Amino acid sequence: MTGTVTVGPPCLCRQVKDSSVKRGYFQKSLVLVSRLPFVRLFQALLSLVAPEYFDKLAPCLEAVCNEIDQWPAPVPGQTLNLPVMGVVLQVHIPSSADKPESGPPKQCSHKNLLPAPVVLTSVHELDLFRCFRPVLAHVQLLWELMLLGEPLLVLAPSPAVSSEMVLALTSCLQPLKFCCDYRPYFTVHDSEFKEFTTRTQAPPSVVLGVTNPFFIKTLQHWPHVLRIGEPKMPGDLPKQIKLKKPSRLKTLDTKPGLYTAYTTYLHRDKALLRRLLKGLQRKRPSDVQTAVLRQHLLELTQSFIIPLEHYMASLMPLQKSITPWKTPPQIHPFRQDDFLRSLERSGPQLTCLLKGDWLGLYRRFFKSPHFDGWYRQRHKEMAQKLEALHLEAICEANLEIWMQDKSEVEVVDLVLKLRERLVRAQGHQLPVKEATLKRARLYIETVVGSLPKDLQVVLCPP
Fold first, then answer.
1. pTM confidence score
2. CA distance 430 to 98
């Protein structure tokens, strides 16, 4: 295959000279559309399929689609062997039980493997070190911008670089869920173009990846702009992008740089950059460099989140306050001032050596979409836990004694509530043991059996 080839998640393009075409080039693209966020897997798949497709066209694509149709469903926690075009891709489908490791991912052992599989270290994680090579000196600043949900424009030389940088930025908050909007490749044709370029209101919390220099002019009012130059060949660390004031962002030929007036709350960890530079000098594999960088960001995020998790856990009512026949107690409200006072004895300084204004960072984090998303999810999980504990309390109580002085209305109400919670528990919306579910079903049968026949028919229609 000749011509210029561009790979991006998940797309591969080929451009070749052709004098018969008005623009002088003939361009063809192969785009993979999926609901699954398996960027690394799809990049590998396209790199195999696209060259053959460009030469052999539809018959090749039809054969590949037939092979992919035979792939097993991606079950979390399983290691799969995916044959395509004479190659076997071995991948591990991540699950919530997987724990991040401090080293590079290892090949998964699996019985009955097909010969010589191509092992992908991850189906979804990008090569973080390669993406962040030009901005390693500012990784911590970028981490803070992502944590606080700040609007960021990424101007890159190609859709592939733009997409990978945006996806790398949104992944650097793990295990905290990224709750803001992000567009790996945004163009002037997108429906939100007018919304994002208006100057009548503050920019939204979104990370935009673009390639058109026109955006420098239209988005000059954005507080943070990252312009990336042409990617360098692997080897020595490329010249690090400089930190520049937004006022210097005036022309379309703006040089690469991070244009922002933002001042970090935490002091920069210079040891990380030294460690990565030493890895380059020793020609350490990119996967290992990525593992070092990802582990650093993971520990930084965990140090920030652990105090929030501890304080949130303290808002849970005591289990002894949950009684069978009363409404479960409410989760105590999150009081920001109380949390900030708790940092003196249980703050991030217990797990992180970085110094800085942690209190200021938390105060600003409270205003971000990430705090709202984190709090809503944790509150939902705690409410479900309360429901599950209440259901267990009911199932362990003496039902016959409770029913002695209860009216039919109260008994029917108990049946309806138990059934509702049983449905939620069976749908895995409540963390309830199977033994508790069996007792709940038995409770419902016992209660319904104690009611008059006409009510039994209503509650248990044939």
1. 0.82
2. 22
Give the helix/strand (H/E) hosting 43. helix 39-56
Model confidence pLDDT, tens digit, residues 85-138: 888 999 888 887 666 544 444 444 444 444 557 888 788 888 899 899 989 999
Tokens 């990370």, residue? 207
DSSP readout, 310-330?
Answer: HHHHHTSPPGGG--TTSPPPP
Helix (H, G, I), strand (E, B) or coil at 372: helix
Distance (Å, rounded) from C-alpha 399 to C-alpha 447? 8
Q: Does residue 286 contact residue 129 with C-beta atoms inside 8 Å?
A: yes
C-alpha–C-alpha distance, residues 264 and 270, integer Å: 14
Tokens, residue 366: 């409270």
Phi and psi (nearest 5°) for 66?
-65, -40
Show contacts of 329-332: CB within 8 Å, 24+ apart. 329/386, 331/379, 331/382, 331/383, 331/386
Burial class (CB in 10 A: 0-12, 13-18, 19+), 295: middle
Tokens of residue 385, six digits: 């836990």
CA-CA distances (angstroms) from residue 303 to 147, 173, 289, 373, 408? 13, 12, 21, 18, 54
Q: Please tell me what DSSP assigns to residue 103.
A: S
